[in-house]
Amino acid sequence: MQAGEARLSIDCGDASTVAVLAWADGGASALSFDGLPYLPSAVYVGPDGEVRTGQRAWQAAVEHPSRLIPSPRRAVDDDVTVDKTPVEALALAAAPLRTVAAEAERVAGGPVRDVRLVVPAGWGPRRRTWMRQAAHRAGLAQPRLVEAPVAVAEHLLATGLQLPVGAFIVVCDIGAGAEVTVLRRGPAGFEVLSTLADPAAGGTAVDRALTAALTGGRDAPGDGMGDWATTQSIRAAKESLGSHPAVTVPLAGRAPVVANSTMLVEAALPVIRRVAELVGESIAAAELSASDLAGIYCVGGSARLPQLDTVVAEHTGITPAVVPEPQLVAARGAADAGASNPGMAVPVEVPVPPVRRAVAIAVPGFASLALIWQCLLTAEEHNVMNVYRSVRLNWGEFTMAAVFALLACLAAGTVLGSLIAARNPTPSTRTEGGKVSIGILAAVSLGAAIAGLYAVVTSQYFGEPVGPFLRWALWPITPIVVMAVAMAVVAARQWRAPHGGWSALLAAPTGSIVTAGLGMGLIQYSLTADRWPDRLLWIDIAGRVGGLLLGVGLVMALVAPLMFRLILCAPVAVISAAIVSKQAAGILGVSYAVAVAMWWAARLWTRIVRPATTSPVSAQRSAGTGPSGGGG
User: Rg of the chain over CA atoms, in angstroms?
Assistant: First the structure.
């Protein structure tokens, strides 16, 4: 895969910088720096003007701590004084980005043209422009800025969070500092309702308090500065205390000390209380109450602070969820946000259906053609003295041909949507939901048109009024059309994506179609075959077997669990076999159409309205292995 097909997403925090390299095939990986999944944001300015980043910066600061800038992103002024020497702030902010760009180019095999930068939601135009200039100074392509809480919310949706349009969530980004944002999901994406930040309510404050507790208040690094080895030891201890009751912490120039979980709780408690206050204040600023929220989600390098969920729950009544890989989630969400070139028409690929989906399209299509062909060839025409002319048709078979035609079109709904979007790539069809919605509506229109065409062609073929043919073709499929339109509305509003994708949802049960279609074909054969004395038994057996198969196909459409199918198959199949006749054929065909409509209603309810699947975010509320120290 070429470097130009990659997307680079960078979350440059006050304490650490994380970057994710994503590819067009959906794969993504976090970049590593000196063996770590993040790059320390600190920069060191040497006496000769050389700017060092990451671990090299902290190592160089052991001898000259005054030359270390721990958070270059905070310096927005034109110049920063380093050991009485002015240094351009933009150059300092560009240094970590330049290191990330070099690593991304090495991994991708060339420059990456699609770059996204994660920025706080509270940043105004001046700081955003400044960040773009820093990216340009670092040699990156023109970046797209993505607000951190919006990127997090998009990642939550992509990983299975069920969040309807109009829902509200709170994103707590706890890194070196804290930023709490209230978002609302709209039809076109997430919008920020309120955001509050406190640079002192994060991992840096916890590191400082824990260092003071371990050293007795002596030689504690201020604002993240100090001995590099001590700082790294404190951060490693903070991460280890999340899973161990006590750890040994080596300190530069002194004997090792023991840190326990109680010390970490005492160091983190003021920060946690401040975060809980920010959550309450941001909810109030959005003019909402806690009962209006769909959830509170914590991300960032310090999102796993002990008792964070307890304290926030005491303030709001809602237990927050820690998103898996909290330090990387914003960068992952930004990597998948939007088109690669905003404002330009995005080419839409027309997917080639895999074998399984092609079968789901072909089976009902061929079944429909076979039934309408048999219906036309075996219809009984009566002509009394060229005056009274009538045609006896198997209305059940005619109805099932119309149903199968509609099901074939619906199974091809996603392909139709992609074809329409490729020919007319308007903004409404560029999104996955827009393509699916247009495809479903096109499939419904095409299926109904084919059913109507069956009616018109058959009426003209026999020279009969078209009214009865339209009634038997269109009325039975009306409930299916209503359910499909409801799904199109859901897809257009991007309310909820079904588990397994829209293609799987739109595919009718192939086994039911084959069984029911073969059953109706046998029934029609038994009703219209020449009843020679030596064939009477076999013709009657064929009709009863057809009734059994049609009953089995009807049950397969009604219920999915195997046990329920076995229970229902016997009575339904026996009843349908017993009533096989010219008068009952229409009832059997309409019954199958009703069963298919009920199948669609069940899919709509269980896959979209009330999905039974559990959100992976809530299922992994306390899972994950992301770093928990000082990131932002």
Answer: 33
Give mean pLDDT, residues 128-139. 87
What is the C-alpha to C-alpha distance for residues 555 and 562, in angstroms, rounded to an integer?
10
As a whole number, the mean pLDDT across the chain is 81
pLDDT at 533: 82
Taking residue 417's Cβ as centre, other Cβ atoms within 10 Å add up to: 29
For residues 437 and 453, give the distance between their C-alpha atoms in angstroms, rounded to a whole number.
24
DSSP 8-state assignment for residue 579: T
Q: Output the CA torsion 104→107→111→116 (10° steps).
A: -40
DSSP 629: S
Q: Of the candidates 316, 254, 250, 253, which has an alpha carbon nearest to the alpha carbon of residue 282?
A: 316
Cα separation, 131 vs 111, whole angstroms: 20
The per-residue pLDDT for 622 is 34
| Rounded distance between C-alpha atoms, residue 140 and residue 128, angstroms | 15
Helices (H), 82-227: 89-108, 125-137, 148-158, 203-215
What is the pLDDT confidence band of residue 165, given thresholds at 50, 70 and 90?
Answer: confident
Q: Rounded to 10 degrees, what is the CA torsion of 220, 221, 227, 230?
A: 60
**DSSP letters for 555-576:** HHHH--SHHHHHHHHHHHHHHH
Residue 9 pLDDT grade (very low, low, confident, very high; cuts 50, 70, 90): very high
Q: How many CB atoms lie within 10 A of CB 625?
A: 9
Rounded distance between C-alpha atoms, residue 397 and residue 590, angstroms: 9
SS (H, E, C) 253-299: CEEEEEEEHHHHHHHHHHHHHHHHHHHHHHHHHCCCCHHHEEEEEEE
The whole-angstrom separation of Cα 291 and Cα 310 is: 17
* 8 Å CB contact between 523 and 547: yes
Residue 335, pLDDT score? 85
Which residue type does 415 have? Answer: V
